[in-house]
Amino acid sequence: MKIDPSKFIVEAYVGEKCKPIDNILDIEYTVEILRRDGEIVSHKIKDVLIEYIDDYGILKTIYGPSLMFRFTKVNPLVPRKQKR
After folding, report:
1. Tell me: the pLDDT tens digits for 40-52?
2. Which DSSP string corresponds to 15-77?
């Protein structure tokens, strides 16, 4: 499955620190669907693959388990209605 990179701030855990990933081109992930008696109970994101361009203009790929990444949803700003 794919995620629109413009809708999230993505950070990756490197050791103890969490570093933001900029210039993301593509985010893909695999989902494990948990079923009970044939019905979908829930789902869990297993693996994440991110393609991005680093600070030197080099295309890079980072792959790992979902616990390695933190996604923060970006809410678009909606202009307030002006009082007349």
Report:
1. 888 888 899 999 9
2. TTEEEE--SEEEEEEEEEEEEETTEEEEEEEEEEEEEEE-TTS-EEEEEEEGGGEEEEEPPPP
